[in-house]
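Let us practice reading a record.
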Amino acid sequence: MGKDRVIGAAKVVEGKVKTAVGKAVGDAKLAAEGRADTIEGKVQNAIGGIKDTLRGK
């Protein structure tokens, strides 16, 4: 597992936490940032998976 996959997974978790906190406190901006972080993490995780496949791992 490459660093892209680890960082991507961490961003997904961070994004989900931000989204939940934003919804809980009624902060739409924080919730939107959380959704963006989640998507960014999923993309980075996918890129890491592609890199791993190309490396033969």
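A brief commentary: Helices lie at 3-25, 28-55.
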